[in-house]
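yo

u said u wanted the structure for the complex thing, so here. seqs first:
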Amino acid sequence: MATVGVLCGRMRVEEKLLVAALAEAGVVAEPVVPTGLPLPPSRHPLPPAPAFAGGPQTDLLIDRFPERAAGAALIAASRATGSATIDAGLAATGDRLTVATALAAAGVPRPNTHFAWSAEAALAAVASLGYPATLLPLAYRSAATPLLDIDAAEAVIEHRAVLGNGVETLALVQAGVAVGCSSCFVVVDGEPVASDGGPEPDAVAPNLAARAAHALGARLIGVVVAETTHGPVVWDVQPVPEFRHARPLSGRPVAEAVAAMAIRLLKARAPQQEPMDPHDPRPVLAPAGHLNGHGNGNLRAEAGEVRDGVALFA
Amino acid sequence: MTGTCPECAAEFELSGVEQGEIVPCPECGVELEVLNANPVQLGLAPEEGEDWGE
Ligand SMILES: [Zn+2]
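structre next:
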């Protein structure tokens, strides 16, 4: 029987909804709460992370871990054991700069953005973009801060620089503010499934959210779309979106859509797990427990996952 | 008196709590602040080190 894990810090409403929807679909899912073990230093899917004995041992892992640096290492460790993952793709492993870069490279409309690596650079960025602007720290766990005027900008940026010991000054500065003119769309398996906003006048914003999810290789992601005078832009993304209050766009709740994707991914994996040789029960998968394990097994597991991701949107 | 955890929606019994008190959710373990004692209203306790002047 397939093992499905929900990687989380604690079982919140969203994780409970996922476990219930999976149970409804006939799949038993268990919360995977990481232990205190340290992780191997890899957070990117390629090159492959080494298999890690302390990592989650599942056939499918749904990433709902709030702390992204640890979450990224945990899903990499999980993929290295051959597990499929449902995660936010590049947004699961990267920061706001990585995501902004990938979205821009894919031609996804974005607000004018500068990357500020110091308090001075942040202030120069706001001066060049004009007011209002928004400061988005690179780490997804840190909330965005609107900078409505020069006094607010100086206060916020200098406060972050002093209290954050310099690290917190690493941020994106985006033109405008998204408060009151944005919706967060939850995109599941390429489809915009739900939103925290009101009814959509047309499909432009949901389609833009789906395009962003595609560009990031995300299977489950929240995409914040803001309306601007130049049309809708992808303002930000949420690697682990909340959806307890999200309004389904076409009647199907988020948890149900995730459960359907889980079934699809488990079915796609099933032939891989058929023993090719009776003496070698799981030849494709790398054995767990070797920090410097055999690269071939890992590479095959990883490549399978990447192919899977491409097939998802083909 | 019962309170509801805003993080996991668990309902649990609370007695003799005071406003401002921090209590753990018995189900998900998150730290909750008693925003109001009667009727009981619970919010997520503020995390330390998260104030960057916003
Ligand atoms: Zn709780």
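The pocket of zinc ion is lined by residues B 5, 7-8, 10, 25, 27-28, 30 (CB under 6 Å). The CA atoms of residues 180 and 226 of chain A lie 9 Å apart.
cya
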